[in-house]
Amino acid sequence: MKVLYAKCENGHFFDANSIEKCPKCSSSVYTLLGEKQHKKSDKEAKESREKKEEAKLKKHEKKAEKHKKNETLAEQPDMEAAVSMENAASDAPAMSDEDSKTLSFSSNSVKLNSGGNATVKLEGNVKTVPENNEEKKDDNKTVAFWDKNTDVQTEPVVGWLVCIKGAEAGQNYVLKTGANKVGRLASVNDVVVAKDPQISRKEHIVITFEPKQKRFYIQQGEGMGLAYLNDELICGSSILNERDRIEIGASTFIFVPLCGDNFDWNE
Predict the structure, then answer these.
(1) Which of 38, 52, 59, 196 could bond 249 through an S-S bridge, CB–CB 3.0 to 4.6 Å?
(2) CATH T-level assignment (fold) for domain 159-257
(3) Which residues in the chain are classed under CATH 2.60.200.20?
(4) What pTM was computed for the model?
(5) Residue 84 pLDDT > 50
């Protein structure tokens, strides 16, 4: 609660929120001095402290109860199994390995033969172990777009960048299907020009070969360095044509395509 302090013409102070006249001289002429937070009484302050302590105690009790509940759940076994099959197993005919099945649990394994009667109660995660204890292999391997119906696993070259000016002049760089990131670090780029410090460390430019239309595209990457295509600043995405000149950092490259209208690896 806030108090609106006022001072009457006779110099008396009072709360203008509670009364309109000075309680001492009954003067209705006064000056407002502004609002201030009302100071709590000792009783109010004590009640406030007690409420805070009570809320803190309840929070602590709730946390302790939750912790105790988690400990109780952790102490319970991962599964409970009650198996009554001793007599049935002794009377059951011998079974081959192919007629039996092993189920693997978190801590135990139970072998069930088809020749006997068994009552099994299972709780927890159940995992069926593959035959011969071998993990199932993933046959859905990722292969290149051009290679999905063949046994060949090598992704072919679709073009090159040839450095004609700069620290790595004379070097050529292979381009593959899809996006080819060009930069200085080998760990994050597909085409690495390590000797030119003016080239961005990560993805200065991106050159993409799109196999359906058999076209090459170039665009600015995530790096801060500028890039030029035939002396024009690269803004957005542009089509790359044979013998186009690309400038990044202090290096100049010529683009040499392999795939296009005259050749494709699917032909």
Answers:
(1) 196
(2) Tumour Suppressor Smad4 (2.60.200)
(3) 159-257
(4) 0.45
(5) no
